């Protein structure tokens, strides 16, 4: 193998590596986009507010019946901003595994 053939082989190998780098960069961009979408679906404690619900009188945060007690109160956590709920995926949606 002479020097010209060696240079051509090296250049060919360099080109193959460049194509692989481009493909990997494309995958990275796609994964970053997917990550950004997933981050929008995260819910935090601060996204909810707390309320008490009486199972006897069915009132929120206050009881009107004398038979109500602390045992009849249930804790409810309510989403503050429903637009976040709309962004959550359904259980029926299947996601492809990233290889």
Q: Work out the helicity level.
A: 40-55%
Task: Give the CA-based shape.
Answer: rod-shaped
Mean pLDDT: 82
Whole-Å distance between the termini? 39 Å
Written overview of the protein:
This protein is an alpha+beta fold and 99 residues long. The chain has 2 domains: 1-42; 44-85, no CATH class. It contains 2 helices and 2 strands. It has helices at residues 3-39, 82-86; strands at residues 48-54, 73-79. Strands 1-2 form a two-stranded antiparallel ribbon. The protein is rod-shaped, with a radius of gyration of 29 Å. The chain starts with a helix and ends in a 13-residue tail after the last helix. The mean pLDDT is 82. Keywords: Coiled coil. Residues 14-41 form a coiled coil.
Keywords:
single chain, 99 residues, alpha+beta, 2 domains, two-stranded antiparallel sheet, 2 helices, 2 strands, rod-shaped, coiled coil
Short description:
The protein is α+β, with helices and mostly antiparallel strands and 99 residues long. The protein has helices spanning 3-39, 82-86; strands spanning 48-54, 73-79.
């Amino acid at each position: 193998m002479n020097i010209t053939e060696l240079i051509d082989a090296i250049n060919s190998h360099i080109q193959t590596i460049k194509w692989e780098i481009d493909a990997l960069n494309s995958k990275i961009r796609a994964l970053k986009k997917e990550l950004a979408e997933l981050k929008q679906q995260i819910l935090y404690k601060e996204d909810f507010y707390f309320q008490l619900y009486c199972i006897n009188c069915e009132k929120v945060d206050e009881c009107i019946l004398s038979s109500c007690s602390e045992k009849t109160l249930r804790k409810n956590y309510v989403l503050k901003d429903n637009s976040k709920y709309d962004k959550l995926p359904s259980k029926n949606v299947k996601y492809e595994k990233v290889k």
